[in-house]
Amino acid sequence: MGIRRGAGSSVPEAAARGMKPVGRARGSDDGRILHGMGAARFPIRLGARSRPLLRLFGARPDNSYVDVDADFDARFGRFRVTTPFDNIASWRIEGPWRWITAVGVRRSVRHGDVTFGGNHRGGVRVDFREPVRLSRLHVPALYVTVEDMEGLGGALAARGIPGEDVRKGARPT
Question: Strands of 72-76's sheet, edge to edge?
Fold first, then answer.
């Protein structure tokens, strides 16, 4: 499992043991947890003004997240996309976007991508080698507006999946 960052554990000490900070976990001091290749949960940020609309999708803080464990598992209210890591081709951190185009469960007419969006500030696009099933849809890519975009990108990179942060002024990952 992971090691909580806090008293008695520092980032340099953890790095010396081959561990990297890759995500957020409930109950930790600053929301960060250090992992080797262990499980990590990345909550989807649900904007305060968006919450009434998001209730239509059944999205709440307790059921809107991405789990990186044995598989990639994204949940957003009543919706869920799961796939093995072998099926993930790449990832990109993008955004921000216009609110009207980013919030809710949305499908792109042009490319068929699906968004699990709780806010407009940005998210991680995950491209699949083979489309993943979501109900009757075959989804080639999924956008998730997680709170810790860099952490999710780092967790995917730690599993050998290439990616980049394409936001203007963002640090390379």
Answer: 3-4, 32-35, 20-24, 40-43, 64-68, 72-76, 79-83
> How far are the Cα atoms of 31, 44, 77 from residue 132, in angstroms, in the given order?
30, 20, 18
How far is the C-alpha of 115 from the C-alpha of 42, rounded, in Å?
15
Residue with tokens 């010396």: 16
Phi, then psi, of 156 in degrees rounded to 5? -70, -40
Is the alpha carbon torsion for 6, 9, 14, 19 positive or negative?
negative
Q: What is the pTM of this model?
A: 0.74
Question: Is residue 169 very low, low, confident or very high in pLDDT (cuts 50, 70, 90)?
Answer: low
What is residue 29's predicted lDDT score, i.e. its pLDDT? Answer: 36
Q: Is 149 helix (H, G, I), strand (E, B) or coil?
A: helix
Q: Which residues pair with 144 in a beta bridge?
A: 116, 124
Q: What is the DSSP letter of 49?
A: G
Displacement of CA 86 from its chain's centroid (Å) = 17
Token output for 61? 């803080």
The answer to whether the bond into 96 is cis (omega within 30° of 0) is yes
